[in-house]
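Work Package 3 (structural annotation) set out to generate three-dimensional models for the target panel prioritized at the project kickoff. During this period the team completed the workflow that converts sequence records into discrete structure tokens, so that structures can be stored uniformly alongside our sequence database. As a representative example, we reproduce one entry of 361 residues exactly as it appears in the project archive.
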Amino acid sequence: MRTIKISSSGLRIAQVAPLYEAVPPRLYGGTERVVSYLTEELVRQGHDVTLFASADSRTTARLSPCCRQATRLDSAVRDPIIHHLLMLEHVRQQRDAFDLIHFHTDYLHMPMFRDRAGRTVTTLHGRLDLPDLQPFYREFDGMPLVSISDHQRAPMPPVRWLRTVHHGIPADLLHPRFAPGGYLAFLGRIAAEKQPDHAIEIAKRAGLPLKIAAKVDKADSQYFRDTVEPLLDHPLVDFIGEIGEDRKSAFLGNAAALLFPINWPEPFGLVMIEAIATGTPVIAYPCGSVPEVIEDGVTGFIADGIDAAVGAVRRLGEIDRRGVRRRFETRFTAARMAADYITLYRRLLDGHEPLVEVDAA
């Protein structure tokens, strides 16, 4: 690999975001939110960052707008992939302006940047257990990849993994509240794999109110109508709908616990670290990244099923909410995430292949 001469201080970095949501999103949106946290922290640490994203994005970096607004919110957009391909062509044309290009666009860019793989990093944010992905990643096995949990890697063929970098959020974004709350919280998206119906059953059996702050995507509307909506007519259940960043501190901080009863290979689960940032413990099923993120008995409980989750609710008094916040500050800040990426960028550009498993704890 050719070694790139880089400054000992700031790097010239391109962050390439998906266009489905603004960076950061107005409401729901995990990947674009993480891209925002990383971008802002890299700027704060003195790096020259260009963000390729939708024009309605907000950043202290140099914004290179690639469509007029988030494609999810633009009724004129029929095929968002077209806009992504145009963005990638713009990145390709400017590629020599950057020491390193960091992609968050899954696999779309790989055919265009294969010949410059050593000056790229791709963070894979989604599930990797879909059969269609296997032949693609075998073909592009030279692209440097970052996983967001160790578990996320499990279904993949041999590829060029650099390391796992767990997500982080700004330390001052969500404010901790240490008095135990009076309700259980469910935050995110209404979908079968998130099992909000289990959250409702857990709350009912535990005898605590449940507040559900979640969006309903078009793809999940039938599941919502058939499975979830009939359960909402209960005095303990309050369906709030989708909420923005400005309401998360209060929503999560005032909760006794966040319920995260997933039944799919969750690659990370940003909402878990949002909860522990407020000092609120998480009760989660042991799927995907959960055992990497939640420390059982410290930042919450890992419960295998409804009965175990109800038991965990009754043990919440054992959790020190100040200790939950301290573990967030140690493990899941944006500053820690950015430092991990800068170490990775420099090793890659210096010609040192990381290929080392790193314990994010």
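Residues 334-349 form the longest helix (16 residues).
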